[in-house]
Amino acid sequence: MVHKWWRVVLVYLAGVLAGSLCSSVTDPDVNLAGGSGGVYAILTAHIATILMNWREMSFPCIQLFIYLTVIVGDLAMSIYQRCWLRRSNGVGYVAHLAGALAGVLVGIWVLKNFRPTKKETYLWWVAVFTFSVLMGAMIVLNFVYDTWLRK
């Protein structure tokens, strides 16, 4: 395995955390069960691996196209079912979306980058900052949510 097991676990846990925090703020009436945010994080972390190791990968354009097609198609279908068809089947679609975003961001700074360039180092810092700000905002919103957002 190219990435150590603990790197994959960190990506998974970041997706679970991001999914649960974001879901509790934006869609509090949905009960979460399972680790779908973490699964989406692992799926989208491969996109981060492709982007960070573009020159070292075999057929990166094809890999990126296939992954984006599958993931964007799945997320689009989920959003369509929830927003336009108004199906409230108890699935935490927001957790899927947040987990997917966490997978890309955390994947950039946790997964192995074989030959870092200056541009990739800049992208690494942007990913760390963005994930930290988003998670910090979700944590703060979870604390203040009951006092002023639900009224």
From TrEMBL:
Residue span(s) of domain Peptidase S54 rhomboid: 2-112
Residues in the signal sequence: 1-18
A GO molecular-function annotation: serine-type endopeptidase activity
GO CC entries: membrane
Principal place of residence: membrane
Any matching Pfam family: Rhomboid
Membrane topology annotation: Multi-pass membrane protein
SUPFAM superfamilies: Rhomboid-like
TM ranges: 32-52, 64-81, 93-111, 123-145
Locations listed in the record: Membrane
Alphabetical UniProt keywords: Membrane, Signal, Transmembrane, Transmembrane helix
Keyword Kinase tagged: no
Family affiliation: Belongs to the peptidase S54 family.
Entry protein name: Peptidase S54 rhomboid domain-containing protein
Species of origin: Acanthoscelides obtectus
